[in-house]
Amino acid sequence: MELTFKAIDEDIAGPAWAALFAAKWPAYRHWYLGDGIEARPGYTECIKAIRAHMPEIVPMYQRLCELAGGGDLEARFLSLYRPPAFVQGCSQVAWTTGEPVLMRNYDFSPALCEGTILKSGWNGGRVIASVDCTWGVLDGMNDAGLALSLTFGGRNVVGDGFAISIVLRYILEFCATAAEAAEVLSRVPVHMAYNVTALDKSGDYLTTYISPDREAIVRRLAIATNHQKQIEWHRHARATATLERERFLFFRLTDPRMTERKLANAFLKSPLYSTSYETGFGTLYTALYWPAAGRAEYRWPGATWKQSFDHFEPGERRQDYGDAARRSAG
User: Fold this and answer.
1) What pLDDT is stored for residue 323 in this prediction?
2) 81-119: string of b/e by CB count within 10 Å (b at 16+)?
3) Does residue 329 carry a pLDDT above 60?
4) What is the pLDDT of residue 89?
5) How far, in Å, CA of 162 to CA of 79, rounded?
6) Distance separating alpha carbons of residues 128 and 326, to the nearest angstrom
7) Which one, 116, 149, 197, 199, has the greatest CB density within 10 A?
8) Beta strands 136-142 and 127-132, pairing class
9) How far is CA 200 from the centre of its chain?
10) What average pLDDT does range 170-189 have in this prediction?
């Protein structure tokens, strides 16, 4: 089981992003229409929703639609408004002893992960992010000193709202602090339940629990796995070991002997590192973001890819998850 990660550096969306979209569109089109075209909202509804909740992002959205060919279906997909449901795993923690670092594991199916790391400057500021659906954000940071990442919230509910990844894009484009991120998460509707941890360069951190059918809950929590205040989807909780991972991180954070290096290395070992690739909950990468320094690392067992705003390395890295599973166990 392999996945190729690709790092792209393009300040203004242009040929590189257009090529990315062209390469990924056939698979995304198949996914987007999986429930039938009648299940997806029309373009008018999509653009109306963006203008109502994230108006600052409209010019960027329209430019990407043009680069994608200007078609109706492409524009509806790129809005990421009421997309099909999708479920991940994931663990994340904000480390604030010393220089603030946001650490996370992204747990998903290798067959469904885009694997793009994009450095961009679409709205004046710079962003480095692991992206989904060619521009949505799974985790990332901006040069204002804000880092954030998401985990699935462990609730089997789907409603009216946006994919969380476009909301995270919006935050990184226009916010600078954890408090500003939480404000956006509290007002923009999302279509599924997610936990978003935001950490800024001052060391302030917040985790926001969001769902399509509930008011957002903002808490000063450094840890998020795959449940919110309590377990609600028990089968998913057991499959992903969400409680075990949360407890593991809690004990590490409260250990006076813990260091940044030890905690980061723990993300490459069980129970945080999962090899359940066949069920869609295997760890695809570990990401570390230092928002004050503007640097990031993407890690796998035995491999590290360092990136930063000052020294960004475009290129490709291929990851063999059979090999990764063996290294993690060894």
Assistant:
1) 61
2) bbbeebbbbbbbbbbbeeebbbbbbbbbbbeebbbbbbb
3) no
4) 86
5) 8
6) 30
7) 199
8) antiparallel
9) 16
10) 98
How far apart are alpha carbons 251 and 142 in whole angstroms? 30
Residue type (1 letter), 27: A
Comparing CA positions, the residue from 146, 136, 97 lying closest to residue 262 is 97
Three-state DSSP state, 163: coil
Q: Tell me what pLDDT residue 280 has.
A: 84
Q: Delineate the domains of the chain, giving CATH numbers in brackets.
A: 87-329 (3.60.60.10)
Does the pLDDT value for residue 260 go beyond 60?
Answer: yes
Residue 57 DSSP symbol:
G
Provide the mean pLDDT of the chain.
95
Cis peptide before 83 (omega within 30 of 0): no
Residue 41 near residue 162, CB atoms below 8 Å:
no
169: CB partners within 8 A, 6+ apart: 57, 127, 129, 135, 136, 137
The Cα-based distances of 255 to 43, 246, 252 in angstroms read 51, 14, 5
**Going by C-beta distance under 8 Å and a sequence separation of 6 or more, which residues neighbour residue 122?**
11, 12, 13, 60, 173
**Encoding tokens for residue 217?**
């809950």
- What amino acid occupies position 272? L
112: closest CA among 190, 226, 36, 32?
Answer: 32
C-alpha to C-alpha distance for 96 and 235, rounded to whole angstroms: 33
pLDDT tens for each residue of 291-323:
999 999 999 999 999 999 999 999 999 999 986
**Which residue do the tokens 């008018």 mark?**
44
Residue type, 18: A
Give bridge partners of residue 146 from the DSSP assignment. 142, 200
Measured CA to CA, the distance from residue 275 to residue 82 in angstroms comes to 30
Measured CA distances, 178 to 152, 155, 207 (Å)? 19, 24, 9
Lowest mean pLDDT among 86-90, 212-216, 224-228, 267-271: 86-90
pTM above 0.70, yes or no: yes
